[in-house]
Amino acid sequence: MKTEKQTFIFQKKHVQEYVQVLGDLNPVYDSEESAQQLGFRTIPVPPAMPMTLYKSFEIPWMLQAPVILRKQQCINHRKMYIGEIYTGFISLSDVKVRKGHTFSKQTLFLYNHEGDLCFSGISQLVSGELA
Predict the structure, then answer these.
(1) pLDDT digits (tens, 9 = 90+) for 12-43
(2) Which of 34, 44, 52, 64 could cysteine-pair with 30, CB 3.0–4.6 Å?
(3) Domain 45-127 is found in CATH 3.40.50.1820
(4) How many CB atoms lie within 10 A of CB 83?
């Protein structure tokens, strides 16, 4: 099962707000000039920031409370940058029901405009029964 595809563009302002909350003082996020001096073409997207996109999707399945995050993994396949277009979706897989608990895996996939996989955000969850 998966969500509808969505298109995203990471904005400089949002990257800077994100790193400020984390307390990340890396100058690569300050300006395009700083990023270029450090070898990037422009400001990169912080490695785990794509996980914040979950809130943008309409999820067609419902996990019943309580929902427990067992394990989470962010895999950066390609560097992502502000101002570029990314398309993604969330898939639900590996669903198993045992003793009234549902074990599942949700994965956020993000692709660049060329169709290359850039990010996989994997969340392994335990919940009540799946609705």
Answers:
(1) 999 999 999 999 999 999 999 999 999 999 99
(2) 34
(3) no
(4) 11
